[in-house]
Amino acid sequence: MTAAAGSPGAPQELDLDEQIAAYQREFPEVDPQVEKVVTALGRLNRRMNVAYGRQLVDLGISNSEWEVLKALVVVGRPYRLGPGDLAKRLGLTPAAMTHRIDRMVAEGLVTRDRDEANRVRVIVELTDEGREKWLQTMRLAAAFEDELLQDLTPVERAALGEILTRLLRRVESSQPDAGGRLEDLD
Amino acid sequence: MTAAAGSPGAPQELDLDEQIAAYQREFPEVDPQVEKVVTALGRLNRRMNVAYGRQLVDLGISNSEWEVLKALVVVGRPYRLGPGDLAKRLGLTPAAMTHRIDRMVAEGLVTRDRDEANRVRVIVELTDEGREKWLQTMRLAAAFEDELLQDLTPVERAALGEILTRLLRRVESSQPDAGGRLEDLD
DNA sequence: ACAAGAAACTTTATCTCTGAAGTCTTCAGG
DNA sequence: CCTGAAGACTTCAGAGATAAAGTTTCTTGT
Q1: Which of B5, B73, B164 is closest, CB to CB, to A41?
Q2: Which of A16, A76, A160 is facing B163, going by the closest CB pair?
Q3: Does the pLDDT value for residue A98 go beyond 70?
Q4: Cβ-Cβ contacts under 8 Å for A178 (sequence gap 6 or more)
Q5: What pLDDT digit, counting tens, does each position of B130-178 carry?
Q6: Cross-chain residue pair A27–B166, CB shorter than 8 Å
Q7: Does domain A63-144 bear CATH number 2.170.270.10?
């Protein structure tokens, strides 16, 4: 196993500090402190989604379906929203919502009915089974999150929450949802 | 425009605190402080990706392509990596990398050649044009990031960086890349 | 009333990613 | 030297997303 030219043995993923160092080397104007925060945020998020994804597999639903469940639960009883509204909240096109709902109806997580008061509209409603699934995901997610933050002191947690909230307010105000959908990931 | 049954006028997206309140209502066991941190993290990330995405459109490349450029630049000169290695770093299947590289070669951002020392391997190398693109994206990204963090005092920035790093270390150690690819988004 | 116009979903075509199968190269024995 | 096994990439079929066009159902001006 000589590994002649290409790359040696274990190139996997760079350590955070190494990556910051690389950025400084390739783009000296960068502020390392800023870059560190931003990079850590991105990586953290990715890892968290991996963790959620694994738990969801165990429960037999996909990340996409989880998003829909969350949106419906958050609006509260009677857990109803239209496809267009859901699409907007999840940052998808209405077309994608149509298909997602198709699948979720087939699995019994939600129902889809025409709104008889205004037949242009459609109402997607969480079923008891869907709500139960959400509760299960919530229990797992909360356990993971508690573990993730266990190293932080209460003071640190509060500070972190406050700072993140402030950052969020800044982006949300400079990006007033204007365009409509929130593109990209989640 | 009376809006009879369904939903009133502007359901768009819930405010952060409202969403936390909704979680507490629907799942009382949840720790609001934890949930606030986690939710803010997720939203922040989404917004940042939206912002990056817009800048990338202006520069005429996609988010996917940007990821590849970043990976190549981070390894340093001569900016070379194999498709499999790239796939691992970006959390994609090798198949997806093949297609991505196809596109990027066609656009002149990278080259793809067989490694003559070990003809099983393929070498993807950044072109000057690709490097230039990366520099442009970096300038825009850095400007956005500086603006995002402008409200924070130097002390806060340092604290934020330190805390996030700590969290990241925790997840990365409990998720040792083991399975191989890092599923999901980015 | 009636026709033009707007709204809210759905359908269709195309693109990108995943998972599995396939191809080509290198290495280790016999 | 030849054969089997392993490794690295590519190809192929299927799932899910986007964009644009299409349907159906209100709404509004005359």
Answers
A1: B164
A2: A160
A3: yes
A4: none
A5: 999 999 999 999 999 999 999 999 999 999 999 999 999 998 888 766 4
A6: no
A7: no
